[in-house]
Amino acid sequence: MSWAEILQYALFAGSVAAMATGLVFVLAGATGVMRLPDFYTRMHAAGVTDTLGAELIILGLMLQAHDWQTVAKLLLVGLLLFLTSPTATHAIANAAHRAGHKPRLSRFHPAHPAEAGKASGEGR
After folding, report:
1. Is residue 55 within 8 Å of 86, Cβ to Cβ?
2. Dihedrals φ, ψ of 48, to 5°?
3. 3-state secondary structure 76-109
4. What is the pTM (predicted TM-score) of this model?
5. Mean pLDDT of successive 10-residue stretches along the chain, which has 124 residues
6. Spatial separation of the C-alpha atoms in residues 70 and 49, rounded to whole Å
7. DSSP per-residue codes, the chain
């Protein structure tokens, strides 16, 4: 087995690993979009999916490419996605915040620290 064949197998293994990891992030993000309770947490799941999952899949495709033109095109797509996806997620979340959309915090609302001290007898 020559070094060229070993390098080819290593590139293939790295490509499969990057695409499989990207697929896991995309599936986790899709599950998060469906299951998370409010708009802001769903936006976070969608942003992570777009940025990290898609970038790993593009990296795996770059490792599979046979010519430099395809690698350059995928690199440009990855760069564009890396710059626009977090920006778009932030813009949408900021617009929702300015429109008055409140996050769904929790069912348990802790008491204010001043009231918590009185209830436990520390304020005496």
Report:
1. no
2. -65, -40
3. HHHHHHHHHHHHHHHHHHHHHHHCCCCCCCCCCC
4. 0.77
5. 92 96 93 89 87 94 94 96 92 92 72 64 52
6. 23
7. --HHHHHHHHHHHHHHHHHHHHHHHHHHHHHHHHH-SSHHHHHHHHHHIIIIIHHHHHHHHHHH--SHHHHHHHHHHHHHHHHHHHHHHHHHHHHHHHTTPPP---S--PPPHHHHHHHHTTT-
